[in-house]
Amino acid sequence: MCSATEADSRDWTTLGRGTRLTVWTAVSRWNGQLIMAKVEVYSSMFCGFCYRAKKLLEKKGVAFTEINVMANPARRAEMVQRSGGRTSVPQIFIDDQWIGGCDELYALESSNKLDPLLQPAT
Ligand SMILES: N[C@@H](CCC(=O)N[C@@H](CS)C(=O)NCC(=O)O)C(=O)O
Known about the structure:
Blueprint lengths: L3 E2 H11 L12 E2 L2 E2 L4 E5 L4 H12 L5 E4 L4 H10 L8 E4 L2 E4 L1 H9 L3 H5 L4
Parallel strand pairs: 1-5, 4-5
Antiparallel strand pairs: 2-3, 4-6, 6-7
Helix pairs in contact: 2-4
This protein binds glutathione.
Glutathione binds next to helix 2 and helix 4.
């Protein structure tokens, strides 16, 4: 289980400071080296599509930052702006590239195009 809310990742970063093994944060690192792309999931509670999208990422062992737009209208506005006007959740970004929602995430996985996107930019 490698997912983290933003609050969690801050806490974990603090916990990990000074230790040799840096704990999993929202951006996956091993001894400071980036080993996976940055993944962001804008979501809300009671959202089956969000649940499915997060399940796939968790199954693949992908660390991601979850942004709850229901609790934070400013972040919803940010999501709409970054996704070109989409209002539905989830909206998913990999290394700041807009991926789409749950259906698009599963389509990428089915066509074997998701893993290359999850590699860290070199
Ligand atoms: N095809 C979209 C469906 C997403 C969707 O319908 N999400 C619902 C919540 S579970 C939603 O945000 N509805 C409100 C809206 O469309 O503005 C996906 O795969 O992500």
